[in-house]
Amino acid sequence: MRTHIANLNSIMQTQLALAWAAGISATLLASCILLWFWWARQATKKITKELVQETSSGGLKTITRGIPPGTLNTSSSASTHPPPIVSTQADISNDRSDQNGGTDGSPPAQQDTLDDAERALSEVNVIAARRLALHALRDIDAKTDSAPSSDTNTGGWGAALLRPNAKYLKRRRASSVLKTAERAIDAAVRALVEAREGESEFRVCRDDDLRVLYRHKSGDTMHYIKFEAVFDAPVHHVLSLLREFDLAITWNRFLHDSQILSAPSLSEVFVYALQWLPWPFKPICAFIRARGYDMSEWDDNTNSAPENLRQLTERMGGVGMFILVESGQEAELTDEQQAALPAKHRGCITADIYKGSFVSMVPSQGSDNRTMAAMYIKVDPKLPSPPEWLVSFVLGTMAPWMFSAMLRLLKTFPSSDVTLPPLDEKQKKPPKAGLRYAHRISKNEALYGMVQRRSRERVDRIKRTS
Q1: Which of 220, 246, 290, 355 has its CA 20 to 30 A from that of 435?
Q2: In whole angstroms, how far apart are CA 243 and each of 171, 262, 436?
Q3: Residues 6+ apart with CB under 8 A from 251
Q4: Quick count: other Cβ atoms within 10 Å of Cβ 271?
Q5: pLDDT, tens digit, for every residue of 425-460?
Q6: Could you tell me which residues are beta bridge partners of residue 213?
Q7: Which stretches does DSSP call E strand in 276-390?
Q8: CA–CA gap between residue 161 and residue 151 (Å, rounded)
């Protein structure tokens, strides 16, 4: 009996000890969780306040980081004050919200400006996206300084700790748009600055309707080439010659193959090209990744970017649609894409196109039916010391022929007010290449409609200010 009672006492003591330990552990765990929430909120407030201060005072410092001093003038008011908003469709809703206030009880223009910034970025209008994101961050900062937070006034401090911080989430959205836009602008500025460097070292190979410039230093594997030309066609038609790259083989006799490997986004493509070269050289191929941005507001509003950017783009007629180009990697291809490469790919030379290469297209002479196009390419053809006759053939024969072929092709594009006839691949006479491009344009209204609209807006702004 005594043994049984002793066992019961021992069990009760053990259970009491376990209960006491569990209570202490739960108390410590709850304390740690509350301390973690408190620390996270304090850190969030500190980080977001620093972010707003940095973006409010830094202006274009992040854009011009690493560019040689004196190249760009960043002392204008654009670096300390938000630039004026031009009357694009996105900004009209911003003006409307200035009067009526945000839809979620935020200060006037805050919510609409943030939505417009994200919309501008989705349309690759990075200049407007950057400007609107800066406005949104300053609006959010103004709310933080002038209005008490509703998070601490509803449901007590405990509920506020567990509720997402609306201001933090908005700052996060706005700062994400700002960083994405500024990375694109920074890359474009660097490319433009580099294209202007060493201009005196370029050799003019042709200077008529097609301007061709070339630079190569002895012992250097890199070749620098510039093309400038005016096309009697709207920007979105000229753009389609690059975007619909798989159709290039239908009119370019120097191409063995052209493929679109992938199109990750509205304005990004990953393509493959295999080009013929004269004997005794093997065909040369390239995997090319291109990303396009709408930067036309650089030309329309000097406060949207450093003033000296006008000098950088003087010969190009402005910036407009700006496409950054660089090499992709064959290793990125899937097994299916590898299998689709032509047989001649096995023995070809793979050229590298380096960062800083770009293509720019802008309406020429205030007309949305003429396009000024410029191309700057940094290429390593992997040919040791290519002979002068080969360089002369590529730049003096191939390039002018392709330019003339592009002019002829653009003339075959149907008018925009004409109903497109259906494509019939089975007919004896294959459809004209221009009709193929026109069908592609009509099926991609999101891209080509946006480019056409932005080009017309730019021409209208120029006409109003001239």
Answers
A1: 290
A2: 35, 11, 13
A3: 405, 409, 433
A4: 21
A5: 665 556 677 888 989 999 999 899 889 888 888 888
A6: 204, 226
A7: 284-294, 321-327, 349-350, 352-353, 357-363, 371-380
A8: 8
